[in-house]
C-alpha cells in the first residue's frame, strides 16, 4: 500500500490518506509518527485523516478512540510537516476544518461531511495568499457559502 501511495502521487493523482486510529493497535506515538513521516516524505500537501474508531462488528473488545488521541495524532502530523491533518468521526469538534498552513487562518469550515463555509479564493488563502493544495478548492467550485 505504501508503494501505491507513492506511485499515485508521482503520477499526479490526488491522494489523501486515512488512518483509522484503534486504541491499543495503532495509536502509539511511535506508530503515528512513522505514518506521518512517511506521508510527508511523499508530499507535505497530502491530507492525512486520523479517524476515530468505534467498536463494531468483529472488533468489539476495543474502546472508541479518545478525542485526545486524535488531537495528539493531528499534532504529530503537523509537527512532521504535513499541511493538512483532519480528525474524522468527531463532527463539530473543529478537527475537520481546513486551516492555512502558513498563517493559520480558517479556510474551510465543516460539520461532518457538510461544508458550511469556504473562504478560499482562487486556490489561495485570502489572508496571506498561500497557495492551497487540492482540486477545485475555491468556494465557487463546490457551492459552499462564501463570506
Plain-language structure description:
With 147 residues, the chain is an alpha/beta fold. It has two domains: 1-96, Aldolase class I (TIM Barrel); 98-147, no CATH class. The protein is built from three helices and six strands, in the order αβαβαββββ. It has helices spanning 2-10, 29-42, 67-80, and strands at 17-21, 48-52, 85-88, 98-99, 106-111, 114-118. The strands form two sheets. The chain has a three-stranded parallel β-sheet, covered by helices on one side. It has a three-stranded antiparallel β-sheet with strand order 4-5-6, with no helix packed on it. Helix 3 links the parallel strand 2 (48-52) and strand 3 (85-88). Helix 2 packs across helix 3. It is globular and about 45 Å long. Residues 142-147 have low confidence and may be disordered.
List the helices and strands and how they pair.
Elements: H1 2-10, E1 17-21, H2 29-42, E2 48-52, H3 67-80, E3 85-88, E4 98-99, E5 106-111, E6 114-118
Parallel strand pairs: 1-2, 2-3
Antiparallel strand pairs: 4-5, 5-6
Helix pairs in contact: 2-3
Number of helices: 3
* Low-confidence parts: 142-147
Q: In what range is the share of β-strand residues?
A: 15-25%
| Main sheet summary | 3 strands, parallel
Structural class assignment = alpha/beta
By CATH, the topology of the largest domain is TIM Barrel
How much helicity do the residues have? 25-40%
CATH superfamily of the largest domain: Aldolase class I
Proper CATH architecture of the largest domain: Alpha-Beta Barrel
Spell the H/E element sequence: HEHEHEEEE
What is the average per-residue confidence, as pLDDT, rounded to a whole number?
92
Taking all Cα atoms into account, the compactness measure Rg is: 16 Å
Ends distance: 40 Å
